[in-house]
Specification:
The protein is an alpha/beta fold. The protein has six helices and six strands, in the order E-H-E-H-E-H-E-H-E-E-H-H. It binds flavin mononucleotide. The site of flavin mononucleotide has 15 residues, from helix 1.
Length: 182
Amino acid sequence: MRILGISGSLRRDSHNTRLLRAAAHLLPSGVELEVWNGLRDLPPFDEDLESDPGVAVEAFRATVEAADAVLFVTPEYNAGIPGQLKNAVDWLSRPYPDNALKGRPVAVVGASTGLFGAIWAQDQLRKALQFAGANVHEEELPIGQAHETLDERGLPVDDDQRQALETILAALVELAEGAKVG
Ligand SMILES: Cc1cc2nc3c(=O)[nH]c(=O)nc-3n(C[C@H](O)[C@H](O)[C@H](O)COP(=O)(O)O)c2cc1C
């Protein structure tokens, strides 16, 4: 089984990208995590280009379609999702309803340096993914003060948060297994 990991941060030392990479250590055996690195290369969404969006968008859609599930890890900018991540979801959502997200198992977690751990961004992202037709796991994992609460590998230092991440990953794998059977 292959899970595609998408971080909403373009920052080199991103807490969210570290968290995403570290999540691979908590996946059940036999499940691989592939981290997608193409966010910066996507053009801004343009409805005029919907049917011929160019190679970056085509490759992105194909990568998502080839994955059994997608794990999104998002920062929060001004109480919402980073624009570049919303842009990516908008590209994936078309053509609607037969798009790369349709029925695809997805989960969302997030980290921020603020107290509330990107909770509004996670909420907004789950809503957009749901609207686009993905099979969204509803649990959230807000990791606040990420500069202090992630260890050197990028995993939460707090046992409960680490356990919560593991539970979300297991639920995502279960959704994906159900989708394979069904
Ligand atoms: C433009 C901007 C807006 C931000 N807005 C929020 C916010 O609304 N809530 C929050 O918790 N953190 C906010 N932050 C702080 C981010 O959580 C912090 O920069 C975080 O490290 C970004 O994630 P990253 O480390 O994965 O790049 C903001 C940061 C920037 C640059």
